[in-house]
Amino acid sequence: MRWPFLVIAVTLTACQPPASAHVTPSSSSAGPPGDLIYVQDLNAPHMLEMDWSGKVRGWVSAQGFSLPSPDGSRFLRATDHLVVEDWRGKSLGQLDADLTSYGLSTWADDGQHICGISFPPNSSPDMGTGSLWIAAPGERARFVGGPVGKPGSDPAVVACSIKNNRAIVAGGLTAHWPPGGTSYLITGDVELVNLSTGAIEYAHQYPLGNLGGQQEPGTRGEWVLVVASRDGRYLAESGVFNGKATIREVPTGRELASFQGSVGGFSWDGSRVAVAVSVGGTTESRVITWMDQRVIWHGSGVAQSAFAKPDSSDLLVGRSSVAGDWYDQVVVREDGTSSVVVMNGRVWSP
Q1: Which of 218, 126, 203, 206 is nearest to 169 (CA)?
Q2: What is the pLDDT of residues 80-115, one digit of tens each?
Q3: How many other CB atoms are found less than 10 A from the CB of residue 118?
Q4: What does the alpha-carbon distance between residue 59 and residue 167 come to, in Å, rounded to a whole number?
Q5: What helix, strand, coil percent values describe the chain, rounded to 5?
Q6: CA–CA distance from 26 to each of 29, 42, 47, 52, 60 (Å)?
Q7: How far is Cα 186 from Cα 104, in angstroms, rounded to an integer?
């Protein structure tokens, strides 16, 4: 399975609100474009390159496009092999990684390396036999330590920090509640791996109980979905049913804060989170400082994802209505001001 922790590429749909701007992207411009967000255009085989104001700066081919770097200056392209390309579509070199498992990878915080997981031949991801690797384009991958992941869940790298010399691996699985009913993506386990030695410096398995897939008897566990800060210092554990989020420091495992809501992601420095909160029978999206729960921004809808702008407190928050009849992407800046940059899949270009 491919672990959807951060939604960066937004699919453009045929639903186009009247207020949307018409965009005619050109091929990539001459100078460095700054930080970019990639948005898929279903009206053409392109990935639009959008800056954080919502302005389209260029485009690259959508064929085989995957996994943009944090600043958008490079991305993976998967064809018969994996290649890293820059924002102009120029190859920076082949990536020494398995085509079948690159979806379990993430960019490191230096924007140069990728951390991922591969598996032995003829083994499945849920056997607990994954190997953590780190690689850069044109270089041979370096494998780190022993097996990662636990039997019964599919592992993926959810944070990789060259600065802090660590990677966080989370095991995901699908559960159903009531048994045979609604499905939920949940986290089964997390591991913090030292990138130099391969040592597991923190590990935790969450109580799962009855997963409800085969109408088996028994009670479910307190299921959670975990997201990690980019630097690998913090975990946000959001309860699937109790509506409570806990911020945990790793590797100490110390609980630093708890509050009502479900966390979609951290800011680059880890001090802020995007969270969906139930308020008076409705759900709203917020960006808060998790240490004191100060509200920086709030708006309607359910915050489902958050993408951090490097070296900034800005967040790109993906949200939708409870009914599912609209969705958007809104940039929330450090000072709390905000701009909707994608609405119902269409770029709102200034």
Answers
A1: 203
A2: 999 999 999 999 999 999 888 888 999 999 999 999
A3: 19
A4: 31
A5: 0, 50, 50
A6: 8, 16, 12, 18, 10
A7: 16
